[in-house]
Structure formats: structure tokens, C-alpha cells
Amino acid sequence: MQNAEIQRWLAARREQGLYRQEQQVQTLPGGLLNSNGALFVNFSGNDYLGLGEAPLLRQAMADAALADGVASTGSPLITGYQPAHAELIATLRDWLGVEDVLLFSSGFAANQAMLSALVGPDDLLLLDRYCHASMQDLLTSGQRSFKRYPHQDLTALAAMLQQSGIKNQDVVVATEGVFSMDGDVTDCAAILHLLTAKQPLLLDDAHGIGVLGSEGRGSWAAHGVQVSALQCLMANFGKALAGQGGFLAGSRDVIDFIRQQSRHYIYSTALSPALCRAMQSSVLLCRAEQWRREKLADNIALFRQLARQAGLGIADSMTAIQPVLCADNTSAMRWSNALKERGIWLHAIRPPTVPQARLRISLSASHSELQIRQLVQVLVQTQPVTAQNHTTTIPES
Description:
Layout lengths: L2 H13 L10 E3 L3 E4 L2 E5 L12 H14 L7 H5 L2 H14 L3 E5 L2 H12 L5 E5 L4 H4 L8 E5 L4 H13 L4 E6 L11 H7 L6 E4 L14 H4 L9 E5 L9 E5 L1 H10 L1 H4 L6 H16 L1 H20 L11 E5 L3 H13 L2 E2 L2 E2 L8 E5 L6 H14 L15
Parallel strand pairs: 3-12, 5-6, 5-7, 7-8, 8-9
Antiparallel strand pairs: 1-2, 2-3, 4-10, 9-10, 11-14, 13-14
Helix pairs in contact: 2-12, 4-12, 5-10, 13-15
């Protein structure tokens, strides 16, 4: 592509209200962040349990950097697999009740590895239309047969399964446990009820891990599903566990199958051993400190109560993710900027990330009651006249 074409593309991006750029910030304890010397209440982070500010976790990272070093020095199959990695994997196995785990540099890489390995060239992949880009991107390669069923529409999924049975096609189903932009929770038990023993379910639980289920095991556990009913579980450390990286969990054979062929695993430098030690501490804190999930649940309930009382249109989400739809990109950006002028950091999310622009409110156990009341008050005071007052149904693109 020529430079002139690049310049025209960037100009069009700005005109469409879709231009993106980094904003340098420093996250602080108590649900705050600093940007250019100004303090904001942060409602755009994914630190759902507030573990990012836990002194024990920070100390674990610092101690591990001194004891284990910050560099793994290679890929996991060469020199990158160290005691810190093995012990983190053992902790994850015990927590989730799985036979084996693979660690990845990101949840994006883990999702790509999961689908590329477990969806065979002759399989039909059935994927929820709103699944994350890391799952959708695999479809653009043209190497796999796929269909996307309407978001959370299990009747449509059942019809697709029936049609595949008539055609004698092997099927793999993939979905998210908690959808990252809508906050709704998938009923894994209901999906599994539609599937036969030969139709595997792959689950991305990046936003459910740590938050839902007994000891924060995830959305599948919250629905009473045994982890063995999933062929493979993807989750990450970058949300409720307050770290970085991702992992795949499942049976010994499934994980070894991925290990043997995943380019994302074989050709990437392994996670820092210091980070692995910190994430081991994070999992232990997550399991033990139930009060964090209880505080988050209280904050979610308070926000939803205040928002309804104030007449704000909110989505039907009972998770930390509370989207408010906007009429268009311009409305979303204006609302976000007006909120920042009042000390609220709440980012506008726009297409193509989502089919319709929105403010994605992200609640945390770190937030105080006063901060949540402030959020609702300022949302009402700055709401554009073009903002939609209902968000229950999100149109598909």
C-alpha cells in the first residue's frame, strides 16, 4: 500500500469517528487512575476483583523477579519451561480440576491455538456471532467451514446442529462464558444439553474466571457444569487475576495434542517466571478471598439499582460489565469526553469492536459506594439527547 493510500485511509478513519490512539495512564489503588496529572475514577479497567492493588500480589512479583528472574530465555519447549511455570500449572490444575494446562503469552494467542488445533479441516465450527476477535479471526483464513449463530440464540444453534446431523457433518461449538462487550453469561449447561458426546464445546472464559462460580472457577462452574464436559477451556490472567498471559485447560490428551502442533506455543517465548509466581499468588488469593466476589456483587447490584432509579438505559447484565448503548460513534465519544471532564474515566467502544457504539462500564471490587453513586449522577448529567434509553436488545451487524 502506498503512503498516499495510507494517509487517505487514516483521514477517513478520523472522519468516521473510528480513529484510535493510546492514552498514557497510571492505574492507582482505590479504583483511580492518573492521566497527565489529573485523577479520575476508573470505570474502564478489567481488574474486577481489585487484585491489581493487593500488596501481597505486588510483593510476590517483586520477590519472584529477584529469585527467579524476569526472563524465561526461550520457548517452553527449549529453555522457557522453568519451576515457576510448572508450579503455576499445578496450582491451576488443582483450582480448576483439570488434568493439564498450557500457558500462553496472551489470551488472544491461547484462543487461536485452541481453535486452530481442535477444529479440524473437515469440521463445521458453530460460533456465537459476538465471540471475541481472537476467535473470529481464525475464520478469515478460509481453511475451515463455519457458521455463526445469532448471539445467545440456542434455538438457532439447535437448528444448525440438526441440519449438520442431516448432512453427517462433524461439529465443534465455541462460545464465550461472559461476553466481553455485553456482559451476558452463557448457559453452558443448556448448550451441552444440545450436544452429543461427539460434538465438543470450546469455551473462552476470560471474563468469567475469578469472578463466577465456587472459588471463582468460572461461568461453567456457576452453571453446575463439570469441567470435563468441556473439551477445552481458555482463560487468561489479564482480567480478574490482575496479570498478563493466557492458558488452555483440559484433559491430558487434548492439551498434549495442542502442545504438539500449536505454533503460538512452540514459537513464542514463554511467560516471565516472575509473572508466573505472581499469577500463582493471584490464584491463591482469588480462591481464598471470597469477600472480593461479594464486594463486586454488591457494587453491581448498587449500580443497577441506581441506574434504574435514574432512568438510565442499561443492558440485561448481572456481571461487572455494564454496557450503555449510544446512538452513534459521535454520541459515544462526546459522552465519554464529557464524563472525563467530570472526573470519570469511561471509554467509548466503537465498531468494528462492537456492532453498535457504547460506553462499557467495568465495575470492580475496588470501587466504593460513593464512586458508584458519582458515576450514575454524572452519567445522567452528561447524557447526550441522542443517547438511547434502552439497551436490552443489541442489533446484529
